[in-house]
Amino acid sequence: MVMPTLRQAQRLLARDRILEAAVIEFAERGYGNTTIDDIVGRAGLSRATVYLHFKNRQDIIAAFANENIDEFRELFSSAPLHKGAGPGEIEGWIDRLFDFYDRQRNRIIVYRQAQVADSDVDRMVEQNYLLIIRAVWPKVSGGRRWNGSEKSLRLAKRLRFYIGLTDSACFMAVVAGVVPAALARDELTGLWRSFLAE
Hints:
The chain is an all-alpha fold. The chain is built from nine helices and no strands.
């Protein structure tokens, strides 16, 4: 394994400081009320250093997304989304999703705020949903390739809907705490089992 140079290590450290400062500022002030100067002050770095890493707030949100989308996509890729999946398998997968939402709570809150406030971020969210659909397509389509047919399109739209419902339920149960986790788990289990039975 090649070790980073001192300069590369310093750049990575500065980038991490910027991202952590941004999470705190976004959480305290809200995405729409946070400026790059707020992030600069919190990170204790110069404006030039922040702009060396990120052009604007959207770039910072994109960095959050890029750090998290691989794990989120893997959670869906490893999901037991096949006919015959038992409730225990699906519940275990939902618990892993809950754990992800718990660990990424502050970033998810910021991501949601940014999605509402910024159409570019909203488009990025939709692109991430497409990545997840591609990741689970082989399982839910019975191994069929995407062929652009009406049947494939209908399945893709339904899958997007179910992934969105799962995202919302995880957010409400784990991040916002407005729905009991056990209720969300039971409802999501039933939802996915009915989807897989069709």
